[in-house]
Specification:
Distance between the termini: 37 Å
Order of helices and strands: HEHHEHEHHEEEHEEEH
Radius of gyration: 17 Å
Number of strands: 9
Number of helices: 8
Strand content: 25-35%
Amino acid sequence: GIENLTTYLLSNVAREFSFNKLSTLVGVKSPHTVMKYLDYLEEAYLVFSIRRFSYKVKEQIASNRKIYSTDNGLIYAKAFQVFDDKGKLFENTVANALMADSIRKDYKIFYYKNVQQEEVDFAVRQGTEVTKLIQVCYDIKRHETKTREVRALLKAKEDLKCDDLIIINDDFEGEEDIKWYGIKGTIKYIPLWKYLMSF
């Protein structure tokens, strides 16, 4: 029931979910019941979810959501196993900062995936425009990791016509002008501690 759902969600922060899959995984017959349980958990401020960005409302509603916990401590307390995925904890921290800020400043946060399933962790929408695209990457020292994050950002820049591109990471600060397959962009690298101070 709701306890299994809570444990599962806290063990899978910063990951996508669908109500159909959740109902099977946690042994609840109806996806509608799972939806109701998730509402209860969100009302109790244990978790929150964000939708996948699309300019089409129907697509937004039908797409998978991503789950976050309101507190990293809850993840350690309730997850199935020892949770040591620093990248997911990093992303969860940023999600909380953005969610609190979005309430104060009246904007919406989403995640974004293109047709090739390349993901940007957060897309900030103010009014009808996407004003910021944010990747969260604990360690960008690995070439493959950095390439993947940058490529997804530049493609999303092109798709969503957004120039404010940010990668939040462990300790690197700077700006980089990048050109990838004809797409140009300036990426800002911000350490997590400094990004959180900006709120």
